[in-house]
Amino acid sequence: MKKTQHRSEISAEAFKKQVIQGAALFLVMAVLGTIFIIVFRSRIKEAGEKKNLLEYWDNGDWETAYSKSREKLALKPLDPFFLTINGFAAYQTSLAQINNEEALRYTEECILSLRKALLSKNADKDGRIRYVLGKAYYTKGGDFADLAVKYLEEAKALSFNAADFDEYLGLSYSAIKEYERSIAAFSASLDPASGEGSDLLLLHIAQSYISLEEWETAKAYLHRCTESSRDMELTLKARLLLGKALSMEGDTGGALSAFEAVLEIGGENAEASYEIGEIYASLGDTTRARAAWRRALRADPGFAPALIRLNV
Predict the structure, then answer these.
(1) Between these two residues, 44 and 209, which has the higher pLDDT value?
(2) pLDDT (average), residues 93-114
(3) In the prediction, which pLDDT does 175 show?
(4) What whole-number distance in Å separates Cα of residue 218 and Cα of residue 238?
(5) What proportion of the chain, given as a percentage, has pLDDT over 90?
């Protein structure tokens, strides 16, 4: 028969178990405490790093914000904050590039980072990401203008706005040949009281009306642009467009005056001289037409339309 254990032996064993359980619990709590401290310190450090990134951004130090965000993304490739800062900074850095290939590389990185950032549930109501993404797609060229419209319209639906928002939306609609919508977007940037806006904005609106063959309205905006602009290059562009609008409308005399004004104000201009040659050719005056085309080549020896006309 099994001998009955003495009460003191049972108490000793129970005490021993309690000690072991207490030690185990202490170790677990110590480990959890250590993990908590590590996580807490890590979060404090990360918060500090994010604050520094925001300071670089707020101070306009795009390149530093870009390089630091790339370093963080190497460790946390799907972090929405680092992706967003990287995308914004990459876009700003692309604008400062002289080399087109380098600019495109930064633009591509901007798009990739911001598309990833949109996968975050917190990005549902962030119009800023869609705004910059739309501008980046517009910068890539006409083949991507539909995507520019998509993201800019999404930003607009989220009530986002910026000083150049309507201008980029108008340019994007113009690039996909939706001119009525481009006019609506450009017009939204005009002063609601006076109807005034930047000279460049007036030129954009005129270009859209020309594409719609609404000559009278186009001419009105071009006249406003030439009268108000102090930018020589912009004034010459407006006068060239005015000449083309008058020519397409059938007003050859007015068109000639507009193109000749370009030459008087800005000196030799290949496009203006070429258009003068086209008008003379339409009137059957080939001598004056060829003289104008030769003048265009003196201004720009590589001007293709004049080369073709002279069979060079």
Answers:
(1) 209
(2) 93
(3) 94
(4) 10
(5) 56
How does pLDDT run across 264-299, given as a tens digit for each residue?
A: 988 899 999 999 999 999 999 999 999 999 999 999
Instruction: Retrieve residue 122's tokens.
Output: 């917190």
Provide the whole-model pTM.
0.75
Residue among 49, 109, 103, 104 at smallest CA distance from 81: 49
Contact indicator for 281, 289 with CB cutoff of 8 Å? yes
Comparing CA positions, the residue from 279, 278, 277, 306 lying closest to residue 291 is 277
For the chain, state the CA radius of gyration. Answer: 34
Residues in the chain: 312
Mean pLDDT of 240-249: 91
Please report the sign of the dihedral spanned by the C-alpha atoms of residue 248, residue 249, residue 252, residue 258. negative
Going from the C-alpha of 211 to that of each of 122, 169, 221, the distances in angstroms are 41, 17, 14
Strands (E), 49-103: none
CA distance 85 to 76: 13
Closest Cα partner for 293 from 264, 270, 267? Answer: 270
Tokens of 148: 């520019």
CA distance 4 to 14: 16
Residue 24, pLDDT above cutoff 70:
no
Alpha-carbon span 159 to 57, nearest angstrom: 23
Whether the per-residue pLDDT at 302 is higher than 70: the answer is: yes
Count Cβ atoms within 10 A of the Cβ of residue 43 and give its class: 0-12 exposed, 13-18 middle, 19 or more buried: exposed
